[in-house]
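Course assignment 3, question 2. Fill in each field.
Student: A.L.
Task: Predict the tertiary structure for the chain below.
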Amino acid sequence: MTKARFAIILILSLVGAGFKPARSSSQDVTLVRFEKIRSDPQLKSQLEGMVRRAVQSAFGDRAGLKPAPTEGIDPLLRDPFPAFITAKKGEKVRGCMGSLETRTSSLETEIQKNLKLAFTQDPRHPPIQKDELVGMEIFITAVGTPKAVQRLSQISPARDGLLIRSGNREAVVLPGEAKTTRYLLAFARAKAGIKRGVSYQVFQLPTATMSMMIND
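Answer field:
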């Protein structure tokens, strides 16, 4: 198989990460960092290499992808930041996993962990098979500091993510998962398992995104 070509976009949802809205702007720094990666061709190429190695790690030699070089990784890509990973084949989502908090010691390890979970352990979808790789999109997103929402009209389903919390129940819905604000809220409540009549909090989530396509 010829070298896989990649491009980078979106990520979907996570339930029950034990997340508490940040009191500092550290996650906004993450968005600035992610934007710099997205706008720099060299950094994007290195990030694509991380994703390619993550796919190779998930499938082993069965992936059939040309190994990406590991030398010369920019320091900006070494420290971890929270990342959502999703896989999409055509219009069909095949897997999604991620976190609002960093869970590993490096960005590459963060990507590898979440990609493998998305490929093999998303309970909403059957495991991804090797023959699905060609033509599959891999999506990545970074999330900024949650901001309390007073009115749902503040949220644009196409532009904003949403965090909903009630006690120890919570869910994240990222841009593009819902076409209307009403459905966005209903979708988030269903993900979190929040019943009718139970009070909850809603937070707006600013995001930065990139997209990748795996081709021959």
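Instructor remarks: The domain at 14-213 is CATH 3.30.1490.150 (Dna Ligase; domain 1). The CA atoms of residues 54 and 111 lie 7 Å apart.
Grade: pending
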